[in-house]
Amino acid sequence: MAPSEMGKSAIVSIEALYRYPVKGLTPEPLESVELTPMQTLPFDRAYAIENGPGPFDPASPQHLQKIHFVMLMRNEELATVRSLFDDSTETLVISKSGTEIARGDLRTEAGRAAIEDAIARIVTSGLRGRPRVVVSPGHSFSDVAPKCLHLVSRQSLTALEGMIGSHVDARRFRPNLVIDGLVPWQELDLVGKKLRTGTTTLEIFKRTERCAATNVDPETGVRDMKIPSFLSKTLGHTDFGVYARIIDGGRIRVGDTFEIAD
User: I want to staple 182 with a disulfide (CB 3.0 to 4.6 A). Which of 87, 170, 186, 215 is the partner?
Assistant: First the structure.
């Protein structure tokens, strides 16, 4: 059934909030976050790790395809480690099986080198050269050029689980917001609509086309599903989730509700 045939819900709530300080590494859950118009979440995908020598120029940052970076789609070993980022010091800690294996202040050459060394040890295949931590103030290494948030619906996740016959972790889809209260797949029909809560307004502008990164279990790093091909065969497309711009800022919290508006 097409999304437009499933009706609409007036209110949705925030089930979970996540940010990804380093592209491809661990999602960090948040209880609340301050949103700024036309920006990402603070520090969301502020850093990335180039896969060997690449074209990214910090002095003139441009949006690049994710193939240039170490990522779950090609480097599933990333899912076997946990990372923790400290905003105040911009220090990244990487651990594996509960043991710290690297720590580095990403503002410094030595700190970046410590993380690069660790990634070179972790990623056993698919590296095209020494990894390089890259950053440019104000730049986001999102999969899309506009600065935005990524939203995934709990009801669509539940529907997908029923179709596949297995649990599907929301973190496979790298969402910033997991929202609750929609009809399954309804979010795909909300492009051009707005979500409003208090003084905050989000505008949904694009459906999210999924890649093979969603096939990787975010806990084990095992490629145990074929989600894009399954979506294509069963729904006729590979879309799951939507992108939204921040139109009006403000603080949002887990449990907040949005009203859907034109």
Answer: 186
Print pLDDT tens along the chain (262 aa). Answer: 344 444 444 799 999 999 999 999 999 999 999 999 999 999 999 999 999 999 999 999 999 999 999 998 889 999 999 999 999 999 999 999 999 999 999 999 999 999 999 999 999 888 999 999 999 999 999 999 999 999 999 999 999 999 999 999 999 999 999 999 999 999 999 999 999 998 999 999 999 999 999 999 998 889 999 999 999 999 999 999 999 999 999 999 999 999 999 8
For the chain, residues classed under CATH 2.40.33.20 are 7-19+145-261
For 223, the token pair is 């490629």
User: b vs e for 55-67, b when ≥16 Cβ sit within 10 Å of the residue's Cβ?
Assistant: ebeeeebeebebe
Q: What is the CATH number of domain 7-19+145-261?
A: 2.40.33.20
Q: What are the tokens at 136? A: 């440019």
Say how far apart CA 122 and CA 116 lie, in whole Å: 10
φ and ψ at residue 77, rounded to 5 degrees: -60, -20
User: Around Cβ 158, how many Cβ atoms within 10 Å?
Assistant: 13
Residue for token digits 């520090």?
43
Residue positions counted in the chain: 262
Residue 220 bridge partners (DSSP):
none
What are the tokens at 217? 């279990």
Alpha-carbon distance 193 to 200, whole Å?
14
Interatomic CA distance for residues 248 and 203, integer angstroms: 9
